[in-house]
Every structure is written in structure tokens, then in C-alpha cells.
Design brief:
The protein is about 25% helix and about 25% strand. By secondary structure, the chain is of the alpha/beta class. It comes from Candidatus Faecalibacterium intestinigallinarum.
Length: about 375
Amino acid sequence: MKEHRNHTALTALLRRVAALALAAALVLSLAGCQDLLTALQQAQQPAASTAQPVQPAEGGGFSIDFIDVGQALSVLVTCDGQSMLYDGGNVEDGSLVVSYLQNKGVTRLEYVFCSHAHEDHVGGLAAVMAKFPAGHAYAPVTTADTQCFQDFVSYTQQQGLTLEVPAVGAVWQLGSATVQLLGPVTQYDDTNDTSLVLRIDYGETSFLLTGDMEQDAEDDLVASGAPLDVDVLQVGHHGSETSTGYVFLNAVLPEVGVISVGEGNSYGHPHEAALSRLRDAGVDVWRTDLAGTVRILSDGVNYTVAADRDVAPEQQNPTLSDGSGQQASSQPAIQAYIGNVNSKKFHLPSCPNLPDPSNQTLFSSYEQAVEAGYTPCGNCLG
């Protein structure tokens, strides 16, 4: 793999400052009279976590590999010689994932997580469970109509294991890394929103796996007070415009975002709307369709990002459609909408008819406001 950028404590601080500027701008757009210092102080205070930090083992090490499985997701996490797998790609990716794990020297998986029951996440897990002994297997549900999910359950049972549905707040140790389940915080009809959301901490470095979680579940997760501020974000739903909203990004403040996506996929992922939001937040984007497998190594203080192919940052998140990256986006840095909880109308932040701050609610997209039952303001959106 070709090594690219090492993220030091100074780099992390600089990127945090840039991300906090985004958070401050959004806060000020919602309530112009709110004190800037208060907004920044609040933005810098992470929510309390029930997980207890563990010091990295001396001589140990941590890696998180976003395996290039095309238009799917599979993430291998290894710490101090112990491994876990989050998703296994499509059914056809099963042999690829098995080979990748074997080449990495994996002989056992402490935990296997199926983020949710869609084939591009659970499909390859049957092959994995057929090859590697596991300590536990988790999913948001225990039954689904698809054959690929049933195969995953079958091979889990063949190991003498029961597929478990973990509770929010559950904590696991993987070597000296701590894994915590943050979501989903409620029940959803949309299978994407049922994705198991995992926070992983190794020393001072942190990672967030979100599966295909979309903006409704993102907003609920933020409202729950979950500890979301991390260094590296697995960008939800392969970079779809329906995920990675501003509200969520302001809570996560990632330095790096990894998008697992297939080259030339029929969905058009990653969508420009999501890429634009990541640019606005100053996130360093890595894409498996361009860079191949993305691997991050951590010593508990600093982390290094490496990939199969050397691809310039401006190509992975271009500001021009041709990928030249020579021009900043002409779109506003923030496009949020302000709802009036009394009138059920929503406005642009620049609207002169904004409600009092106590009656405001934030929407990260026009569609989200409409779906919530709000109607556009006739003055600023008419």
C-alpha cells in the first residue's frame, strides 16, 4: 500500500479548528444574537461516554482496513492481535474478504458485526463465518427474508453461536481498543437506519462506523447525546446524498472520511451533495473506487492513512466536475433550513422572518423539512 498522510496532534488541532468554524457558523446562522464564545465552547465539549478508555498495550498496534469490495462495505479492525469484522460486502465478495483476512494473518474473529440486513453488507458474511471461528456475531435483527441473511444466520449457528442483537451502550474490548454501540437509538422502518453504529477508541484516536445510516437516524443519534466526535468517519450509505447531513457532521467533526463505493456504480455514489458537505467541513476524503483498499494505522496518538493507489486529494473530492480541483465550490458553505415549531413553516437562515430561537428547529435539507410536515416560507422560499 502507498502511504500518504500522517495525522499528528498538530494536524488534528488545525483540522478541529476548521471544523469548529463550521459548527460556529451554523450556530450563528440559527441565532445571530448567541455569543460566539459560548457556541465554540459547547462545540468543543464531547458528550459523556460510558466506555472507559484503555491505554494501548506496549508493543501492540491498531489498524482499520476499509476493504475494496466495490459498491458494498467490509471493514476489518485489528488490535493487539485480535480482530473483528464489520460487514462482509456482497455475496460475490465473500471469497475476496476471506482471502484478505487470511493474507492479514487473521485466524479468528472476536466479533462479527452485520450493520444491517442489506445484501451489500451481509452477503459475504456467510463465507466468513464458514471459514473463521468467531466469538460473537451481532446484527440489528435476527431474521430477514433474504437468502444471504439466512445463510449468515445458518453459518453462525453451525459454530454453536446465537446471532445477538446488542443494546445501545454495549461495550466490547478488542485488545486495548474499546468498541461501543451508539445506535440505532430507536426503531426504524427503513432498513438503512437500523444500521449498527460503532465507535472505536484506541488511545487518543477514534473511529466511527455507520453502515448505511441516513439523516433521520443521524439526527436522532445527535439528539441522544451520543459521543460522536471522532477522528475518522466511515461515510454513511456509500456517500449518498441522504446521509452525512450538516447536523451530523457538526457533531462528529471528523478529520478523515472514508467512502466505500464501487467504480461507475449505477446509483451515482458518492453524490455531489454529500461530497460538498464534507468539503465544507474540511474533511479529508478517501474513496475505495479511486484509491482501492484504505488502511489506517494508529499508535494511539497519531495515525497514518494508506491506500492501494496514489490518488490526489482533489481527485477524491473534486470541486470541479472534471476533477481538476482548481476552483472552490460556488455553493454556500452551509445550506440549512430553519423551521418554526409553531407555524410549521421553514426558512432560509437569511430570512427576515425567522422565529425566535426558542421556537426554531434545524433541518439539513429541503426534503427533510417537507418530510417532517413543514411548508416553505413564502418570502424566502416562495
